Amino acid sequence: MRCWLVTSSIFLARARPRPLLSPRIQSTMNQCRQTTKTTTIVSTATETKKHLFLQKRSMSERPEDPQDPVSFQTQDSPVSREISQEERLAIEERQRKAFAFFTETLQIYGVEELIFCFNGGKDCTVLLDLLMRYLRQENISSGDIPMLYIKSGDSFTEIDDFVERCVRNYRVELVEYEGSLKEALTHMAADMPRIKAVFVGSRNTDPYCQHLAPMQPTDNDWPPMMRLNPLLEWSYHDVWHYIHMNSVPYCSLYDRGYTSVGNRSNTIPNPHLRNPDSQCDCDSVPACSCGPSRYRPAWELEDPALERAGRLPRK
């Protein structure tokens, strides 16, 4: 494990000419994001500098074989669910289109210019698994595209632990900041000026994401970067079909009725998944500690429009 303290600030290099993309439309990245409290990361080194601390960790203890399947031996093992032939074919088509998107991306950007944003949630978990499968198919090292994780003092322990396990088992390089997404990208642009585009697990049913394009430039007041959205057309149930079909490990919160995970202060289990005989009283209590039997798992939510019913309104 390595921790590097980066205190240099370098202006973002001008991108080289790219092939012509779809017409530019106004970005909504400043709305379609998860914002966390701005804090200073405490470094393990003796010197710290606010916002410019970049933590990079390589947690693989053995050389990577790109042909080896990713294997988890953790508590976050997916629960079996029968997938119909129709669902299977639909997800295979989703995966084919995602792989085509990755191929198109690598025709525009070098692999060293890419990073992917990961928050430990179900959508980012699918994005991570898809991207790692694609890289293995193309004989590209999983460590070549780093993982950007924005850490919060209000995050679920289960999410932080799951992120660590993903780093270890997918053998990716972790780049970690604290603050909002905009702050993280701003300082990442200074610390890692080679990065020109970021993969994000947004879906068009997410708040303010209805009009995002698959390749969407950031707003003018953000660091100049291309936002890559390969999961825009995926539905809530598509995400869970992919996870079960491919036995993808996921955060254990989803087994306890959480359907959309933010931070501890704004997230509760989805009330629409509470078992009828449950006496759990978590409908208004952040970070509910009720056991898995009190709520049905996330994939049993019938109406995807209720996905965010467990998110509390901002105070």
TrEMBL record:
Cited Pfam families: PAPS_reduct
InterPro entries: PAPS_reduct_dom, Rossmann-like_a/b/a_fold
SUPFAM superfamilies: Adenine nucleotide alpha hydrolases-like
Domain Phosphoadenosine phosphosulphate reductase: 114-267
Pathway membership: Cofactor biosynthesis; FAD biosynthesis; FAD from FMN: step 1/1
Keywords recorded for this protein, A-Z: ATP-binding, FAD, Flavoprotein, FMN, Nucleotide-binding, Nucleotidyltransferase, Transferase
EC primary class: transferase
GO molecular function, one term: ATP binding
Biological-process GO terms, alphabetical: FAD biosynthetic process
Region of interest: Disordered: 55-78
CDD domains, sorted: FAD_synthase
Reactions catalysed: FMN + ATP + H(+) = FAD + diphosphate
EC identifiers of the protein: 2.7.7.2
Protein name: FAD synthase
